[in-house]
Amino acid sequence: MRILLVEDDQQTASFIIKGLKQEGFAIDHALDGKTGLDLALSEPYDAAVIDIMLPGMDGLSLIDSMRKSGVETPVIVLSAKGSVDDRVKGLQTGGDDYLVKPFAFSELVARIHALIRRATRAKDPTVLQVGGLKMDLVRRRVFRDGVDIDLQPKEFALLEYLMRNAGRVVSKTMIMEHVWDYNFDPQTNVVEARICKLRDKVDRPFQKDLIHTIRGVGYVLEERD
Amino acid sequence: MCWKNVTNLSKTVTFRLTLWYSMIFGLLTFVVFLVVYFYLVSYLHWQIENELLNSIKEFESLYKTGGIDALRSEFLREAESEGAHNVFLCLRTPDGKVVASSGAGACRYLEPLKPDLMNSDSDRPVLRTISPHGLSHKIRLVAKEMEDGYVMEVGRSLKNNELMMERYRETFGAAIFVMITSGGLIGWFMARKAMSGVSRVTTIASRIGKGDLRIRVPYGGEGEEIRALVIAFNDMLGRIESLVKELKHVTDNIAHELRTPLTRIRGLAETTLIKGKDVSEYQELAASVIRESDQLIAMLNTMLEIAKTDSGINEMALEPVDLKKIIEEAIDLFMPLAEEKDLSIEVSLPKGEVIIKGERHRLQRAFANLLDNAIKYSLENGRIEVSLKREEHGMVLVEIGDSGIGIDEKDLPYIFERFYRGDKSRSTPGSGLGLSLSLSIIRAHGGDIQVESAPGKGTKFTIVLPVES
Fold first, then answer.
1. Chain B residues with CB inside 8 Å of A83's CB?
2. Which of A91, B76, B276, B314 could form an S-S bond across to B281 if both were Cys, CB 3.0 to 4.6 Å?
3. Average predicted confidence (pLDDT) for chain B
4. CB-based contacts of B33, cutoff 8 Å, min separation 6
5. Do A137 and A207 have their domain in common?
6. For residue B112, is pLDDT > 70?
7. Which one of B264, B284, B297 would you mutate to disrupt binding with A, by most A Cβ within 10 Å of its Cβ?
8. Model ipTM value
9. By residue range, what is the domain housing residue A6?
10. pLDDT score of B117 more than 60
11. Sheet harboring A127-130: ordered strands across?
């Protein structure tokens, strides 16, 4: 997987590059909009991460030029501005997703994966499976080791989100956004309480835990030895 | 005075009014001068013509009865009494030879009438003005052909008239000058008087501009317009002063709110660095740093959100949203927290959708904050009541009541202020921004929040919002 990063701040760039390389991505980095556009137009990328505030040509015009030249690479817009208007503007210009600085790195990774998946997706799966945990998306039923687990609608949505991102850390804000459509962190432990309830049903009655807490960062659903 | 001051002066209202007054006074005086001048000129003209016509009639009858000799002596007498330079009398033969004149050379100045003029109408005398060589003044002349073909000419010098008009012009020139000057003075005086309030406000405003926001402009009795200006100006000052105060207050609070968690982060890092033994301690530290940073970021984001909401929600972003759904979702979200405290939530919602025009995420946030507060400040086994009602006049009413600790009366007026936290709430986690944000959001949607509370019994927030018409 090859990713284009257009970011003028060296420190931010080096931390993103380092992290994404660890995730197994190949990264090309441009320090300004012009170079970024040249790269985007000449190389095939699976996704691009583009900062809005750039010297020379700003991120939004860069995306605009890309789209006008017919380059459909999915783009995540990075910005220090997080208001609704700014988001709308970023997405209207042709960005596919929007991330506000400062952001959790795990969130960036998850969003890149989601974008690539969306762009290359052949067909939506009807069954999700992690270890002995099985989710039937059509009949909306969940089984673990053959045992039927009864979930409330929101619990089902939460588990679906965790399973779709199995093996990747998802933050509280990502959960809030995808499961409850809240684009802010309510600063309370609502997510913790929900996860706790979910664990009671999905993990407690069984031998091995699937839902793990990454302290200070978020949660991950995976099978561990 | 340097050039800049001169150009500035020319732009002042006082200067312009002065100029206008001068011009108007000058112009009016000039018009009066012209009217009087032309009237005088035509009057004098008429007068002199009358005299000339009368004279020539008398001389004609004298010539008829007394002949050339009587006329000659009458000519001389006339020249003597009127002055040889003022009257010019002459009688010529048809071929132009002088037979009688009022004095030596009197006829020299008069020119013989041209034959075509003579022949046109012999009965009527012909009137002309001539400027003869050798004389400094014009002559008004009347000529008439006698019955025997002789031509009589009677002329009068216009010297006196011209002198009179000259004096008149001189006098009026002086009058115009006086009018322009006095007009300017009156204009300057009136403008100064009218502008005195303005310049007083300006003086004080520039003093305030240098730093002292407490000064107010006193009213000096210059008139209703100035009074309105002074009142508006003082109102604005009051608003600015309170804004600056609030800004300072908020800045102080931000500094304080930042300092506390930053001190905590720094302390944690320092002790781990000095005493940390294994990886798990460093992992612990990293997790704490992330948690604290996230809280700081959330606080800053909330601050920005309040500022942004206060400055007004973009009309374009408003869309029809179902308020009932937002409330239901918020209750669903917070239900596990309520259950942890064994709180019962009683919900009363109307049938069908309650559509208002708003911004979904902001409204979610406003109600989440209020519900969060209700749970946070409730005691175990308490009750929370949430109701949504359609009211008259196109409003909806949302009530969120709890049976919690309540708010002290002394805290009640301040709970919506940024960072304000009552004594009792200090032990509960929170930034002190939630209610401010909720209020900003509701107000940006054209609504309002009211609160009633009894310490020890509970608190009820009442939110009114306009429904989409």
1. 304-305, 308
2. B276
3. 84
4. B172, B175, B176
5. yes
6. no
7. B297
8. 0.71
9. 2-120
10. no
11. A127-130, A133-136, A141-144, A147-149
pTM for this entry = 0.62
- Report the amino acid identity of residue B305: E
Helix (H, G, I), strand (E, B) or coil at B359: coil
Do A171 and A107 belong together in one domain? Answer: no
Out of A180, A183, A185, the one facing B333 most closely (by C-beta) is A180
Q: Which positions in chain B touch A169 (Cβ < 8 Å)?
A: none
Alpha-carbon distance of B25 to B181, in angstroms, equals: 9
Choose the final residue of a domain: A98, A120, A142.
A120
Contacting residues for B396 by C-beta, under 8 A, at least 6 apart: B323, B354, B356, B388, B389, B390, B464, B465, B466, B467
With 70 as the cut, is the pLDDT of residue B115 above it?
Answer: no
Interchain contact, A187 vs B298, CB within 8 Å: yes
Considering the domain architecture, whether residues A133 and A90 belong to the same structural domain is answered as no
The predicted-structure confidence for B299-314, as pLDDT tens digits, reads as follows: 888 888 888 888 776 6
The CA–CA distances, whole Å, from A52 to A60, A175, A181 equal 6, 25, 24
The half-sphere exposure of B172 on its side-chain side, counting CA atoms within 13 A, is 18
Residues of chain B contacting residue A186, judged by C-beta atoms under 8 Å apart: 333, 365, 368-369, 372
Residue given tokens 């949203």 in the structure block = B321
CA distance B433 to B420: 8
Written as one letter, the residue type at B300 is L
Over residues A106-116, the mean pLDDT reads: 86
Quote the strand ranges of B273-394, DSSP E: 319-322, 344-348, 355-358, 383-390
Cβ neighbours of A197 in B, within 8 Å: 336
Residues of A with a Cβ under 8 Å from any B Cβ are 82-85, 88, 100, 102, 104, 154, 180-190, 193-194, 196-197, 215-217
Residue of B nearest to A213 (CA): B287
Query: What's the whole-number average pLDDT of chain A?
Result: 86
In the sheet that holds A75-79, the strands lie side by side as: A26-30, A2-6, A47-51, A75-79, A97-100
Omega prior to B94 cis, within 30 of 0: no
Chain B contact probe: residue of A106, A184, A196 with most B CBs at under 10 A: A184
**Which of B336, B365, B431 lies at the smallest CB-CB distance from A184?**
B365
Assess whether A167 and A96 both reside in one domain: no
A110 and A136 inside one domain:
no
Name the strands in the sheet holding B87-92, side by side, starting at the edge strand that comes first in the sequence: B98-101, B87-92, B151-157, B139-145, B126-130
User: Does the beta-carbon distance from A215 to B283 stay under 8 Å?
Assistant: yes
CATH code at A179?
1.10.10.10
